[in-house]
Amino acid sequence: MSKKNGTKQDINLVNLIEKYGNEDKCRAFLEELRWPDGVTCPRCGSKSISRYRDKYVFDCNSCRYQFSVTAGTIFHDSHLPLWKWFLATYMMVESKKGISANQMKRALSVSYKTSWYLCHRIRNAMSDGNPNLLKGIVEVDETYVGGKTKGMGHGYKGNKTIVVGATQRGGEARLQVVDDNGRKTLHQFIRENTMPNTEAIYTDDWPAYNGIADADTRHETINHSQEEWVRGDVHTNSVEGIWSLLKRSIVGSYHKVSTKHLDSYLDELEWRFNNRENPYLFRDTLLKLIKSGNLPYQELVAQ
Ligand SMILES: [Zn+2]
Questions:
Q1: Within a 10 A sphere around the Cβ of 17, how many other Cβ atoms?
Q2: How distant, in Å, are the alpha carbons of 30, 86, 161 from that of 286?
Q3: What is the whole-number distance in angstroms between the Cα of residue 47 and the centre of ligand 1?
Q4: Cα Rg for the chain, rounded, in angstroms?
Q5: pLDDT tens per residue, range 12-56
Q6: Of 47, 69, 160, 215, which is most buried, counting CB atoms within 10 Å of its CB?
Q7: What is the pTM of this model?
Q8: Secondary structure class of 138 (helix, strand, coil)
Q9: What is the DSSP letter of 287?
């Protein structure tokens, strides 16, 4: 974590309400985000568009398709006003540790189901479909989430979910749920998330990481089992900082996270972490939302 307090966002709760406190203002902003070069028909691509008198509806002069700014987007939800979407998005990007569906429910005066579904759709839009590969010095580590088993020893991991993470020093993070912490799985994760000529991979002394070095990539280990935590610039403190955020968010905000949804919580954490120095995170998250299709509730609960 290079900056503990993060970068100052270009928006706060007061100007959020001033700028986006009603439907008209939210729609106008979404129109700017969706169509920076002017309103375009989602069906035929025409730019010859008439606006109906009630302002919300457009009519395509070429194919006569009638649409609104939310047509075909995640916002196309019959009962949730846009300003609630905006407020929910703001709360999710602003909170370092994330926000639980229960907190969101109270803040927006909606049902738990609506809140849960809303949080998941925003989270889903945050996932980075095509991330860059990490390079330079990359720290890799695994951690265990959830599944406390009464009566079992501290080291018992049978019921827990394994998460592996990589962070580029001063850069982005990649987090992923994996089936096991064996050599094949960890090596594959590293290969899929780092440049082939990454300068160095720093890990602890877990033997499964052995053999990850090659001609242009060093592998340095810190011997946690020997109580060694830092040796020169060799440490895994950045990735461990993410684990502590993850654990505080699960304990503090989410209470318990089902394994099947853990990957999307990781995407949310990754999105916030990777944008920790982006002052336009709120706008950029709305941009992701307007570009992502809807995620049907049935699909989400069936995953
Ligand atoms: Zn058209």
A1: 15
A2: 8, 8, 31
A3: 8
A4: 22
A5: 999 999 999 999 999 999 999 999 999 999 999 999 999 887 778
A6: 69
A7: 0.86
A8: strand
A9: H
